[in-house]
Design a protein that fits this description.
heterodimer, A: 260 residues, alpha/beta, seven-stranded mixed sheet, two-stranded antiparallel sheet, B: 187 residues, seven-stranded parallel sheet, 31% helix
């Protein structure tokens, strides 16, 4: 399907109004690719068909889900997780915000890491844009043949623990153990519209890639405003902060961890 | 060189040695940006660009998302990220699904360069073990860009150049040394 710039703008405006996520701030080419993939998945042939779909709350939720990019693997960039473990070791309490969860790979990676560190008092808020995404996270199951990369990454954490301490083999594939989500609270909605609360750590890796410069800058400012003094923001290792208006400073520059 | 805005190269198995030799023999004043997408191990983040940089007179970097493309620099797709050329002259990265079992996908890099540079794109496909890149090179040809395929007889693995030759007719089929000579003779 070929979509003109005008089509893309119209679709972005419609989706933003109905779903509540600022798709108009997404990178044009990224948004075009996602819309085309979403149209193919839902069998949409004409741009005009989208409007009625967005009026259906269930379908709108599915569209929001299809617009997110699933995490590629658990413990992606093991050196990032090792660095984070080192930084967090010795802490007695921690509050974490994950403002844009997709398939839960990042969330489960974090929860395993926090379990390894043994922090007593943990509060993690995971934010999703869709009920389908939330259900996928809570019922995550990975076919064994796709789990090899997760195991390999886990080994690279050099944690001294076993993969089986956190994941179990079932007839439907590899599942995270249910206690991993004990300290997690889920909320639904666009993170930019959330009430500002303060956290010690915000994990927002490889999401800024999806945004154009305007939304990128606004998002970083919003995230920085939600950090406690000394709090940290983790973005993807190939993402950079474009804005100079925040007080974020590199903490582990090679792993894209910033601190206020 | 004013005929082109960038050189875009794709390769897989065996292509590192070809690219290394090519960069080491390019004339020091070669100023077109070179954008390279090579299939690589996803868990090894460092070493590839550094090794290329040692041998090259051009600066070799693994770009950050939204980094501006500059003359005289070589941009190597980072491991486990797709790399795209944007209309505003920047690089964008993505963790979208694999394409042709690959992330980075050569098709994605070449096709985005075709859309951005059109007839001012110079695309090259090197040795490799799957068909990724063939469609991207065809996109460059379809936009009237200039296309070169490594001679399959000189390829360590000929699947990639042969896949390109199956679906399009490049402007040139050259050995690795021939490709380097061609680039050095660009005016």
């Amino acid at each position: 399907m070929f979509l003109t710039i005008n089509d893309i703008r119209e679709i972005g405006a419609q989706m933003s109004a109905k779903i509540g996520v600022d798709y108009t701030g997404y990178s044009i080419n990224f948004f075009r690719r996602r819309v085309i993939a979403m149209f193919e998945e839902l069998g949409v042939r004409k741009v005009q068909d989208l409007e009625s779909m967005l009026d259906d709350a269930v379908k709108a939720d599915e569209i929001a889900h299809l617009m997110t990019i699933p995490g590629t693997e658990m413990f992606r960039d093991p050196s990032f997780w090792r660095a984070l473990r080192k930084i967090l070791s010795g802490k007695q309490s921690l509050t974490v915000w994950m403002p844009n969860l997709t398939n839960g790979f990042e969330l489960y990676s974090l929860m395993v890491l926090l379990n390894q560190i043994g922090i007593n008092n943990i509060k993690v808020v995971g934010q999703v844009q869709s009920d389908i995404t939330l259900k996928d996270i809570k019922t995550l199951s990975i076919p064994e043949k796709y789990d090899e990369v997760n195991r390999s990454n886990f080994e690279r954490l050099e944690s001294g623990t076993k993969y089986e301490d956190y994941f179990e083999s079932t007839e439907n594939g590899i599942k995270p153990k249910s206690n991993l989500l004990e300290n997690v609270t889920f909320v639904k909605g666009w993170f930019m519209d959330s009430a500002v609360e303060k956290y010690d750590l915000i994990i927002f890796r490889n999401i800024l890639l999806e945004y154009g410069p305007r939304l990128h800058e606004k998002a970083v400012e919003r995230l920085a405003a939600s950090l406690n003094d000394g709090g940290m923001l983790a973005i993807g290792i190939k993402e950079q902060l474009l804005t100079k208006t925040t007080n974020l400073k590199p903490h582990e520059a090679g792993e894209s961890i910033y601190r206020v | 060189m004013s005929d082109y805005k960038a050189v875009v190269i794709g390769g897989s198995a065996g292509s590192f040695a070809v690219v290394l030799k090519m960069l080491s023999k390019l004339r020091p004043d070669f100023e077109l940006p070179i954008i390279i997408c090579m299939h690589r191990l996803k868990h090894i983040r460092s070493g590839l660009a550094e090794n290329l940089d040692i041998k090259s007179s051009m600066k070799v970097v693994e770009p950050y998302d939204k980094e501006r493309i500059e003359k005289g620099k070589v941009y190597l797709a980072p491991s486990n990220y797709h790399m795209f050329v944007e209309f505003d002259g920047t690089i964008s990265l993505s963790i979208e699904d694999m394409n042709n079992q690959s992330r980075p996908s050569i098709d994605y890099t070449l096709s985005s360069a075709a859309a951005s540079y059109r007839e001012k794109c110079l695309g090259i496909i090197l040795t490799g073990a799957n068909k990724d890149g063939a469609k991207g090179l065809k996109d460059i040809a379809d936009k009237k860009g200039f296309t070169i395929v490594q001679d399959p007889k000189t390829a360590e693995v000929d699947t990639m150049p042969k896949s390109a030759l199956k679906i399009m007719q490049p402007d040139l089929i050259l050995s690795p040394d021939g490709i380097t000579d061609f680039l050095n003779n660009l005016k």
